[in-house]
Amino acid sequence: MRLLALFIFMIVLSPRLIFAESEYSFDLDEIEKKAYSLGGYIETRPVFLVFDKDSALYKLKLYNQDEGKTSEEYNVTLQLEGSYEKGIAKLYTKINADLRQSYLGWSDTTSVLEGYLSLKPSSSFTINAGKKALKWGKGYAWTPAAFADRTKNPDDPDLSLEGFIGLSADYIKSYSGPLKTISFTPVLIPVYDDVNNDFGETDHVNFAGKLYLLLYDTDIDFIILTGGSKTTRFGFDFSRNITSNLEIHGEFAFINNFGKKIVNNTGNTFVNKHDAKSGLFGVRYLTESDTTFIVEYYHNGTGFTDGEMEDYFSFINTAYEVYTSSGNDNDLQKALNLTEGNYGKMNPMRNYLYARVSQKEPFDILYFTPAITGILNINDGSFSISPEIMYTGITNLELRFKTGFLIGQSNSEYGEKLNNCRAEFRMRYYF
């Protein structure tokens, strides 16, 4: 590359070329935007785990295995992203393939995270058909009003999310005055046995919609989801820059007749139906020294109370005692089924506080960013804390070392997790 650069430099400065012609020209085709793009990354991520062998989730998930106190996990991920544009049409796809070796053995998954056709007949109107992540909501760690999106991982909220297959449109119009922009996004989401079957109850076509306003320099969304696969729900969010370095945001969600499946300490299950109200308020602040603070409070109206979680943990411990004395794992299997998509959700309880502090290039160390993230379960006092360091000084290469510590008493969310400590090293190369 250095020889090529020197060769080009010599040609540009050649007197024969400079003085031989009084005029010069260039080819517009060489600087026009390409119709296609292709990129992505390949990543390796070894993980070291320290198990909590006294925790309820260790007894539940590893009751018939002897994994010892520690375990290693190895992940290799390839993510491809490509698009092709011609005229008013654009094809876009994002594919993720993951190979993992862990205490559960080898596993591999390949998912089309997004894949859709977009038609833009005018600057103000767009139609999208296929699988697309809508990315609604203003929250960083949680987005309770993003009814048509998958749930974020608050421990790593920047990870790409898989979309749902559907048909959507966007109409946008600009004005002068306090209301500068208005847009409307209707979405149809079909749910059948082989289409979006993890969205909710099958054999329904659901409607979601978002009305966006830029009013008095404040971003505002009104959101709705209805159709049968899930109960009807309404949402609202906002975001506003108070100053150039201070932003506030919030969300509110109302879920009609939400059904929460609960187990008591003897293993009996029942469904509690109620109108759930969830909310979030957050602040993002950037200092003059490039320190970023993100703080969010999240109320999860669909979550479990302290007593409900204690009954769940008590049922697991009792089921484990039955297994160790008789070899009967029926109750443990029942607890596993209740955990999947229910008690096993990320942050399944009521009230949480999220805080993250990151410092760009401290002490003038170029391309180096340390950060620390904490998530507190306000209800039971348990919490996680995750320090990390990132280095990006090599072109297209991102190196991150991250640790996580889970701290809590018995019968608390983080105190009963499978592990109480983890460390991982991520090496991601972009192309």
Architecture overview:
This protein is mainly beta. It has a single domain, classed as Porin. 13% of the residues lie in helices and 52% in strands. It has five helices and 18 strands. It has an 18-stranded antiparallel β-barrel. A hairpin with a 5-residue loop joins strand 11 and strand 12. Helix 4 runs antiparallel to helix 5. The radius of gyration is 26 Å and the shape is globular. The N terminus is likely disordered.
Instruction: Give the C-level CATH assignment.
Output: Mainly Beta
The count of DSSP E runs of length 2 or more, i.e. the number of strands, is 18
Helix content range: 10-25%
| Main pleated-sheet profile | 18 strands, antiparallel, barrel
Query: How large is the share of residues in beta strands?
Result: over 45%
Q: Assign the CATH architecture.
A: Beta Barrel
Report the CATH topology name.
Porin
- Quaternary class: single chain
How many discrete domains?
1
What is the N-to-C order of secondary-structure elements (H for helix, E for strand)? HHEHEEEEEEEEEEEEHHEEEEE
